[in-house]
Structures are given as structure tokens and as C-alpha cells.
Amino acid sequence: MKSSGSLLTPILRSDTQGRLLAELVLHPDRELTLTDLAKRVGVAAPTIMRDVDRLVAGGTLKDRRQGRSRLISANDQHPMYRPLREIVLYGYGPAAVLPELLRTIPGIAQAYLYGSWAERYTGTPGADPADIDVLVIGTPDRSEIYDAARRATEIVGREVNINVVSPPRWAGSEDGFIDTVKERALVPIEIGADR
After folding, report:
1. What is the mean pLDDT of residues 73-97?
2. CA 72 – CA 86 distance, rounded (Å)
3. Domains in the chain and their CATH numbers?
4. Which of 20, 42, 45, 58 is most buried (CB neighbours < 10 A)?
5. Cβ distance 129 to 116 under 8 Å?
6. Can you give the pTM of this predicted structure?
């Protein structure tokens, strides 16, 4: 996992901080234990503890105890919540929103963000992305894919384009589009292994 922040949100200290905020600020009703939050972010709990402690102390996040567990959530009443949500949505929204939208669609084997958004997210300099490109490998129902693209567009505030390719086409090596996509930045969309 990259440690420096995304070029989409250079004001955030690190990629870990951005992913942490995306898990909570983009889902204000979500409460997670420190362990669950760390698992979703893809790091060890001690790695995010300092960020969580600072954000709780500053009022951006809130915590409460339930038994021995410390539950962390976004403080949607904080004056910085709305501007912070917009910043996090811009830099981490597609990676945070698309898994939940695609996870329920049968027939998806893999999914990736690609194109200019993926390039900026992974640290390649360039112009701000005007849209979000998503590649789905599998045989999902097209109407469900279009519905997911529409909902993602509404949430992230930029057009989300989902291209579907078959597993044999993705595995092949004689396709110019596929070759180009594979040569550039790909951000996996975690849709779950139980598909």
C-alpha cells in the first residue's frame, strides 16, 4: 500500500489517513472498532491509532466505549464535516463507494478503477480527472451495471463510466484497449471473494 497521500488530495498527510477518513466520513452512520477500521484501511491497528486519536481530539471523529471496544465514527455535527467530506469524496470517493455498489451485482469476477483518476490516486501527476473510469471483468447484467454507474455518479459528483469486458478478453493479449489499461494504473475495487 502506498503511504504518501493521493495527488487528488495533497492536503491529507497520508494515504492511510485518506482511507481512514473515507471509511468514516463518507459513511456517517458507520461505527467501527479500531481493529475493524484498520482492517478496512488495510493496515495494523497501531498504525492508525495516532491519526484516530488526533481526529477524535480535534472533534472531526468521535468515539465511545461499548464494553471493552472503542467505537469510532464521523462527527457529522463538526463544522469541518461538510468540507472534509467533499475533500475525501474527491480523492477517495470512487474507491470507497464503488465496492458497495458493485458487490451485490452477480457475475462480476473483478473490477478496477483506471484512467486519469487511478493515475492521480496512485501518484502520477497530471490534470484533474473529469470523470471516473471503471473496468468490470465478468458477465453482469448490463442494467444493474448502468444503475450502479448512475448511483456512483450521483454520490461522487463526477460521471462514472463502467466498461464491462469478458474474462477471456481480459486474459487475452491481442486487444489494444486491454493492453493499454493493463500498462497503466489500476486500482482494484474490493468486491469480495465470495462471488
Report:
1. 95
2. 20
3. 15-83 (1.10.10.10), 93-188 (3.30.460.10)
4. 20
5. yes
6. 0.86
